[in-house]
Request: fold
Amino acid sequence: MKKVSVIIPAYNEADAIGATLRAIRERLFCHELIVVDDGSEDETAALAKKWADLVITVPRNRGKGAAVQLGWQRANGDVVMLLDGDLRESAAEAEHLLAPVMEDACDMAIAILPSPRQKAGMGLAKGLAHRGIKWLTGFEASAPLSGQRAIRRDLLQKLGKIDKGFGIEVGLTVDALRAGYRIREVPIGFFHRETGNDWRGYSHRGKEFVAIGRTLCTKWWEGKPWLHTP
Reply:
């Protein structure tokens, strides 16, 4: 039986982290539940300690990619599941995301979330991620920015370092496909916080767009070794 480690990177998730962790504990069989508190300024870490086996506290916010890297390197499971801290009760659906990896149907399972309840933004970040992944690998990603993933540990060990910030999902997908691993996207009934059509929402999506572009440029460069060989 494969051991499962659940890693949750969290930043200022005091309003949701308790419900998320409780749902995981009640519905998902996992060997360890790890929360990486990425420099939160609220009670995220204190609330997480009630449910998590390990809470790793980072003094300052370093970004999601760095938090995930820190978490999986401390994990002991054969399968590493990455979930966001704001899934609340819908985190219980994680068992359906885990199944394809446990059954060896794929090496990385990526959740396709339901359509947002309200349309926000123009889809530029998602469109860039979709086109970039297809251009670099030929893979048609339906959920290129989904952070809800179940991944074989040996895949993460093979890839080594994870991209930082908002480029983590795109980087993981491109690197896994280039290394020959199998990816499957799975519709899952997860719901989490949606960014709105206000300044904060547009700012978030703008930063995401820039980070995705930076990651895609890096992956293109890495795929052309003759361009940077001394």
Q: What stands out?
A: The first helix runs from residue 17 to 27. The chain has a mean pLDDT of 89. The chain is about 40% helix and 15% strand.
